[in-house]
Write a structure and sequence with these properties.
It is a single chain. The chain has about 210 residues and is an alpha/beta fold. The protein has a single domain (about 45-200), classed as P-loop containing nucleotide triphosphate hydrolases (Rossmann fold, 3-Layer(aba) Sandwich). It is built from eight helices and six strands, in the order αβαβαβααβααβαβ. The chain has helices at about 10-35, 55-65, 85-90, 105-110, 110-130, 145-150, 155-160, 180-185, and strands at about 45, 70-75, 95-100, 135-140, 170-175, 185-190.
Length: about 210
């Protein structure tokens, strides 16, 4: 049967053609979805030079709150900053525990030993959250930064994350994620920077960066 060109179809014919095409797509999609039967907590990594890594992680926290889940958040860098999301999430004390343990970027502190000590304290808290059984989701915000500078042992981090409770979701954020972490992850998203206002001389904006 010869298919009539779309350009010569009436509106009714276009509607029927579209419905038939979408029905085939739905059947194929349903078949794919039905084949996915594994249920487990995910190890998720948000990395890359683009903006939005921590923002995306906080979005997952909001989604978790809406589903009645409990979330633990450890901030490895942002402890010295007041952020809008922290104010909002602290309004859900029964569902969210936030530990802001960072002391700023290493170029701010300019103190290697202090950076290492802060990273180790934050990682110890992270391990407690992961193994406690109290949380459904744990966010390790900017963990990739101390890993990049060698302030934490990547082997210890990967071993802990891969041995996490089966149904616990863990999100790790920050640029320059280590290959070992990427290999261990279930889901990796790389934020690619195409354009950023900072490069045009625009400073960090309230409600956007913090």
């Amino acid at each position: 049967m010869k298919i009539k060109p779309k350009s010569t179809m009436s509106e009714e014919e276009l509607d029927r053609h579209h419905a038939k095409k979408m029905a085939k797509k739905k059947a194929a999609r349903d078949k794919i979805v039905a084949s996915k039967t594994i249920e487990k907590g995910l190890l998720i990594v948000h990395t890359g030079k683009g903006k939005g890594k921590s923002t995306a992680a906080i979005g997952l926290v909001v989604r978790a709150i809406g589903n009645g889940m409990r979330t633990g958040i450890v901030q490895f860098v942002k402890g010295v900053w007041e952020t809008g999301e922290r104010v909002v999430l602290e309004a859900f004390p029964d569902q969210v525990v936030i530990k802001a343990m960072g002391e700023g970027f290493s170029w701010d502190t300019q103190d290697r030993k202090r950076d290492i000590l802060a990273a180790k304290k934050a990682w110890a808290t992270s391990k407690e959250m992961i193994t406690s059984g109290k949380f459904d989701l744990v966010v390790l915000d900017e963990l990739n930064i101390p890993l990049r500078y060698g302030n934490l042992d990547i082997e210890d981090v990967v071993t802990t994350l891969t041995a996490k409770p089966k149904m616990l979701h863990v999100v790790v954020t920050g640029r320059n994620a280590k290959d070992e972490l990427l290999d261990a992850a279930d889901l990796v998203t790389e934020m690619t920077m195409i354009k950023h206002p900072f490069r045009s001389g625009i400073k960090a904006q309230k409600g956007i960066e913090f």
